[in-house]
C-alpha cells in the first residue's frame, strides 16, 4: 500500500510557472468560489439505481456514493472528537461535554446522529505543544483504546456507509505529541530520526508502530510531520525531521512507507509548511513571509516525497502564506489547496483540515467555516467546535447551492476510496503490541540518533554518575538511571559525575554549570549556552532513547548521530562531519 504514489508523474515545476499561477487573481482573502452545480445534478438523493460494487476501492466508493442521501454525504466529511473513553458508556461529565458539542450523550450516538465519516481520539501530556486544542482525553491504555474503537466501528457499521470502515485517527507522532504511551512501542521523535539519517531505520520503526496502531483499531495517523524546521519553532520543534529539506524528505518518505505498509493511512502535515514560522497556530495565525519559490524549494520537498511514497492524506495548516494567498489561512485557501497542492504538486488523496477548534479557524461560525474549508479543497473537516452547527451549515449550503454538490461528492468519494483502501489489509492482533521485535526497531533508530556536539567521540563517562534534570523529569531520570545500571555504570544519588538532562521548553536557566555532561532530549538549541565539556543530544526522552544514551555513556556504543538543525557555536557532530 505504502509504495504507490498518490500523485501523477510530472516534470519539476518551474518557479516562473508557479509564480505566474499564484500572481493571477491574488487579491482578496476569500476562497475561490467553486463551480455552480450542473443543472442535471440531483437536488436530493440519486435518481438512478446504484451500480453493483466494483472490485477496486475507487469503483466501490463511486458506487456507494451514488446511493447516499444528502445527510449521508454531509456526515462523511466530518471527523470530530468526542468525550468519553467508551463508545456507549460515559460519565456524566463526558455526556455533558457531548451534549454541548453535538447534542448527544455518547460517541456512538454522535456517529449515528450525524452519520460521521470518522472520529479522532484525543489527549495530551504536559510537554505537548498541541494541548491548546485538546479539549478532553479518551485514550488511556491499549485495551481501552481497542474496546473504544470496536464500539465506534459497530456504531458506524449501521450507517448507509457501513461497508466502508469508520476512520478512527489520532496524533501519534512520537516525541512530544504521542497520544497512546503505555503498553505500546514508543519511537524516538522525528528529529531523532533526522539525526540518525537512515530512512530504512525510520521505515522499520514506523512499520512496527503502524502495526500496533492498527491492532488497537486506529486506521489513520495524523503523522508524519512534513514541516521543515526552518525557524526555531517551539510548536513544531522536534516534531520535524530537521532543517534540511532534502534530508527531511527522505525521512518522511520512510515514515509513510512503514506506516502504510501496516494498513494505517499516513497524513503529511502541516501544508504549506508550519516550520517556516515560529508562531503557533494553536494561538494565532502564523504568517509565512517566504516567496513562492522559497516555499517550493525549502518547504515542500518533504510533502512531495511523502506523496511519492503513497501518503493517503495531507493536512492543511492554519498558515498565512503571504506570497500565495495573503490574509487567508491555507485551510481556507483555494489557491493553496486546489491550485497548488492538487494542481501543481499533483496530490490525489484526501485533504484534511487541521483542528477547526483552533483560533484561526474560529474566526467564522462552525457551519460557515466548514463550508469555506470544503470549497477550498479539503475533504475532511477535523475537530469542529460544534458538530451540530457544522453539519447543519454544510447541509444548508448544499441545498442552497453555496456548496456545490459536485464538490461534496468529490470529497466523499475520496474519503470512501481511502476507507476501502484501508480495509484491504487485515489489522494485526493485540499480541503484536510492544513485542521484542518492535522494541528492537525503535531502539535501533534511537541508538543511531545519539549525537555528541562537544567532547570526545566516545563520550564515555567514569562512574559513579549522578543523574540530574530540569524540573518535572523524574520519570525520565529514573529511566536513565536504570539503563545506566544495566549498562554497568555505577549511579549514586549525589556526589558523582553529573549527567544533566534538559528537554522540551527548557532554556538557559535549566542548565547546570557543574554538569560534566549535558543532554538535550528535545531540540538541541539549548546546548549553545551549556558549559559542560561533553554535550550530547538524544532529541527524545523515550525509553529507547535513554537506553541508547546509557550505552554511549557506558562506552558500549558510539554516538553516530548528526544534529539535523544548526546549533550556534557547535558542530553537527564531533564523530562525523
From TrEMBL:
Record-annotated membrane-spanning stretches: none
Catalytic activity, EC: 3.2.1.52
Alphabetized SUPFAM superfamilies for the sequence: (Trans)glycosidases (SSF51445)
The keyword Signal is assigned to this record: yes
Region (Disordered), start-end ranges: 27-56, 558-577
Signal peptide interval: 1-29
Catalytic activity: Hydrolysis of terminal non-reducing N-acetyl-D-hexosamine residues in N-acetyl-beta-D-hexosaminides
An MF annotation (GO) of this entry: hydrolase activity, acting on glycosyl bonds
Keyword annotations from UniProtKB, A to Z: Glycosidase, Hydrolase, Signal
Domain of life: Bacteria
Domain Glycoside hydrolase family 3 N-terminal: 106-417
InterPro entries: GH, Glyco_hydro_3_AS, Glyco_hydro_3_C_sf, Glyco_hydro_3_N, Glyco_hydro_3_N_sf, NagZ_Beta-hexosaminidase
Family: Belongs to the glycosyl hydrolase 3 family.
Stored PANTHER family: BETA-HEXOSAMINIDASE (PTHR30480:SF13), BETA-HEXOSAMINIDASE-RELATED (PTHR30480)
UniProt-recorded name of the protein: beta-N-acetylhexosaminidase
Organism, as annotated: Micromonospora parva
Organism taxonomic ancestry: Bacteria, Bacillati, Actinomycetota, Actinomycetes, Micromonosporales
